[in-house]
Structures are given as C-alpha cells and as structure tokens.
Amino acid sequence: MLLSGVVPSHTTLLPTSSHSRAAPLRHRHDPVGRAITVPLLRRSAMTIQARDAAPVLDTEPQPLKLLDRRTKLKIAVIGFGNFGQFLARTFAAQGHEILAYSRTDYSDAARSLGAAFFDNQHDLCEQHPDVVLLSTSILSAEAVLRSLPIQRLRRSTLFVDVLSVKEFPRNLFLQLLPPDFDILCTHPMFGPESGKHGWAGLPFVYDKVRIGDSDDRVERCRAFLEIFEREGCRMVEMSCAEHDETAAEIQFLTHTIGRVLAKLDLKSTPINTKGYETLLTLVQNTCSDSYELYNGLFIYNKNSTELIEKLDGALDTMKKELFERLHGIFRKQLFEGSARRSIDAGK
Ligand code: NAP
User: Fold this and answer.
1) Interval between CA 72 and ligand 1 midpoint (Å)
2) Distance 137 CA to ligand 1 centre (A)
3) Helix 302-346 vs helix 253-263: angle between axes, to the nearest 10 degrees?
4) To test ligand 1's pocket by mutation, which of 293, 299, 300 has the most ligand atoms within 8 angstroms of CB?
5) Where does the UniProt annotation place the signal sequence (predicted)?
C-alpha cells in the first residue's frame, strides 16, 4: 500500500553542491507556517536519483528535504469537540488532510480549519482514512467505537486514541477491532489551555499496542508520531498499564485538588501570594475541561479509587494533627492558668 503523499523510499533528492557559499537567501514559511530563511539554489544544484521520480518543481533544499520525508496522512477525527479540534488545528497546519465526525454539527469549525465535516460515519469511512483518531469523551468511547461501520474502512487502518486513560481504550480496541487493524494508544498530556502557546517540551505518551511489520504500516505509525515530534513534544513510550498507574497521581490528583478548590469559590485579592496565584491557575486549568473528562479519569482508571481514599485519609490525618496540637495548647493554658489562679488566690 502506498500512502497518499509518500515519496517512494528509493527516491532520493540530493543537493550536489554545498549551498553554504554565500547563496542568495529567500524568505518563506515552513510546513507549520513559521517564517524561515533558506538559501536559494539554482535548479542545477539538485539531482534526482530515481528513474520514476516526479520532476522537481521547487529546488530549495531544506524545506524540500523536510517535506519529502514526511507522509501526508488522511486523518479521521472522531469526536470533534474541544480536544479534537485543538489537535486537528495542528494536524492541518502540518499539511495533513482532516476528516471530522461528531454527534454535534461542527461543520463551521471544520471549515475554518480546512477540514471536511461528515455527519454520517458511513460517508466518512468510505473516504478510507489512513488513521482513525478517537477523541470522544472516555465515557462515550465504547458506544462511539461500536457504532463505527469499520467494515467500510481499509483493512489495515491505523486506529489511534487520545483518551486520558489508557488501559480502557487499549482493551476496547483489542476487543472490538479486527486483527488486521493497527492500534496506537496515545495521551498528549496537555490540552487547549496548557498547550495554547505551543507544544514544545510537553509530554506525549504512546504505546504501539499492535503495529504490523510491513514497511508501510511502520511508516504510517512513524508519520503520525512525527506530528508531535515536529511540534517539540517530549515523546515518552510507555505501556498503557504504566501510564494509568502514574497518571492517576499526576492527573487525577491534580484535577481533584483543582475541583475541590473550585468548590471554595476562591477569589483573586489585592494581596495574592505566588502560591495562591498557583491555586487560582490550577482551578482555571482543571475546571476548563469538561466534568465528563474528570469523571472518566475516575471511573476508567482503577488506580483513582485508591488515590481518592488516600487523599481523604491524608486530609483527615492532617486535620487530626492540627486539632490535637490545638487541644494540647488549650489544655496547657487551661491547667497552667487554673494552677496559677489557685496560687494567686492562696497568697
Ligand atoms: P470530553 O468531554 O472528554 O469529550 C468531548 C467529546 O466527546 C466531544 O467530541 C463530544 O462530541 C464527544 N461525546 C461526548 N459524549 C458523547 C456521546 N454520548 N456520543 C458521542 N460523542 C460524545 O472533552 P474533550 O476535552 O474534548 O476530550 C476529548 C478526549 O480527549 C477525552 O477522551 C479526553 O480524555 C482526551 N484528552 C483531553 C485533553 C484536554 O485537555 N481536554 C487532554 C488529553 C486528552 P460532541 O461535541 O459532538 O457532543
């Protein structure tokens, strides 16, 4: 299978001379829209080393190298809500073709991203996407996956999920998808709020649950992961089980504290300390995600139940420590105070 936009592996574009010698410069944009300056090479400076290669239309070496090494994927985003759109924006900016499906009509939002919106899953599957990306709420993932007419997809389609829990979608995919389909479970550990200024340095967790051995399947998976690498994400390969164990602490705990603090209705004051500002930001970051997301973190990560019990216990222990000290001080004052009064009275 040749993926759309893949340059055959035997095709190599090689600059035949160094362009470091005061080559004229030209301003243009890289594939994600950033302004860059590249040396302008004369057409003769590039040779094609493959007999069936397409003619060269652009001879600038750096962007060509980058673009030609990349696979343009056709990505179907299932669940085009808050996070689905957030991801699709970057996919589209990198030149991938985006197809979107959601129960809500997001055709305007899709159009603004240059994506095609489908209100019918059959129509979408008949487009034969290379990748089907599941970005629905955790709670609805099973129902949505079961409702997909997967028989209309190509047999080797790559299924990816971005759910914030990982063992649950892994088991779901393994249980519901035919063995021919590839499976990549991922968790971009950032969202529209924390990733609004770019994804550089932000963690991206992935587990290649089932990727076929053939070159095209390996290449397709690599091309998908490369989207995040190119944005500068910190790529972390980790099993789904290990993710859930770790994420319960860093994710469920963070969201729980944020939501508990939100119940206190904290207000900004003229004397905010840095610590208090951090709490206000935490409330804002966690409560801007849907309650359904938070609920999914609790229900579908078996480690969350134990953690919320531990948190409850820790608050109790802390309260006990504080009240015991307070009682100790009162008792001391009470007894020492009454002894002094008796002494004073006996004088
Ligand atoms: P969410 O509330 O977890 O999910 C909203 C999405 O689920 C929307 O696309 C919505 O479709 C769909 N959905 C909900 N109930 C549905 C149902 N009964 N049937 C069909 N579709 C349903 O919010 P989100 O922030 O967009 O997150 C999407 C996924 O990304 C979640 O699995 C979440 O864990 C994961 N994730 C989120 C973040 C983040 O920071 N937000 C970060 C990493 C991973 P409609 O809009 O069409 O109703």
Assistant:
1) 25
2) 3
3) 50
4) 293
5) none
Report the nearest-CA residue for atom 17 of ligand 1. 140
Extract long-range pairs of 269-276: CB within 8 Å, 24+ residues apart: none
Angle between helices 240-247 and 167-176 (to 10 degrees): 150
| Distance in Å, CA 288 to ligand 1 centroid | 13
The C-alpha atoms of residue 182 and residue 224 are separated, in whole angstroms, by: 12
282 C-alpha vs ligand 1 centroid, how far in Å?
20
**What is the pLDDT, as a whole number, of residue 23?**
38
pTM over 0.70? The answer is: yes
CA nearest ligand 1 atom 46, residue: 81
Distance (Å, whole) CA 275 – CA 287: 18
User: How confident is the model over 213-229, as pLDDT tens digits?
Assistant: 999 999 999 999 999 99
pLDDT of residue 6: 33
Interstrand relation of 116-118 and 74-78 (parallel, antiparallel or unpaired): unpaired
What residue's CA is closest to ligand 1, atom 38?
Answer: 191
Give the pLDDT score at 345. Answer: 73
104 lines ligand 1 (CB under 6 A): yes
pLDDT tens per residue, range 58-69: 333 344 344 445
Does ligand 1 lie within 6 Å of residue 162's CB atom? yes
Amino acid letter, residue 7: V
pLDDT value of residue 341 = 75
Say yes or no: CB of residue 80 within 6 Å of ligand 1.
Answer: yes
CA–CA distance from 25 to each of 16, 41, 43 (Å)? 18, 9, 15
- Position 347 scores a pLDDT of 63
DSSP string over 132-201: EEE-S-TTTHHHHHHHS-GGGS-TTPEEEE--S-SHHHHHHHHHHS-TTSEEEEEEES--TTTTTT--TT
Residue spans of the chain under pLDDT 70:
1-70, 347
